[in-house]
Amino acid sequence: LYGSMAGSYRTIGQPDSAYHVYHLALDEAARSGNSLLIAATLNNMGVFLYKENQFDSAMNYYRAADRVVRTARDADQELELFHGSVRDNIATLYEEEGNFAAAGELYQANYRLYKNGNDTYRFLNAGISLANAHMEMGSNSRALALLQELHPMIDTARHAGKLDNLIDFNRVYRKYYELN
Fold it and tell me: Does 159 have pLDDT greater than 60?
């Protein structure tokens, strides 16, 4: 409910009201004591601030969400999978800062997290992002090995309608060939 309300305020050009609603949501989440709800609310606040081009503030909320997940006493598989989303958001900001080593570490963690699961979309996304980070750091051979590992799954993704994975894969593969 809070997220929808905050999103509506943002859509109609009232970011201050949206931010206020997110704080109400955070208060409610904190009262619940549910780590996933608290981390998700902090992450959503980060996404909101990112969209408002307030990157430093967004990073603060993403890191707060990361801390909640890492120190949660009620940790479970759902919370760990959500941690991947938080890491993706932090890694995106690192990439925008040109810190591809830090982004790569987070994408590597997500790649390991999703590798043995059944979330092909997130696994491919983590692998494609990691390959891109490798190329940005000049590790083209590592990027190629990763892209070759992912290639067989791209057909599966295509058949499952995960076209953004396919587009991202082709963009990174093309980048590899342009660099070599």
Answer: no
Distances (CA, A) of 81 to 59, 116, 123, 166, 168: 19, 12, 11, 22, 22
Alpha helical stretches, state H, 52-119 = 55-71, 77-97, 100-115
Residue with tokens 């057909």: 155
What's the whole-number average pLDDT of the chain? 89
Residue among 110, 120, 131 nearest 155 (CA): 120
Output DSSP code: residue 73.
S
Cα angle 145-150-156, degrees, rounded to a multiple of 5: 160
Interhelix angle 140-159/163-179, rounded to 10 degrees, is: 150
- Sign of the CA dihedral 131, 133, 135, 141? negative
pLDDT digits (tens, 9 = 90+) for 47-66: 999 999 999 999 999 999 99
Q: Give the other-Cβ count within 10 Å of 2's Cβ.
A: 18
| Dihedral sign (CA 55, 57, 58, 62) | positive
Residue in this structure with the two tokens 């996404």, named with its chain if needed = 47
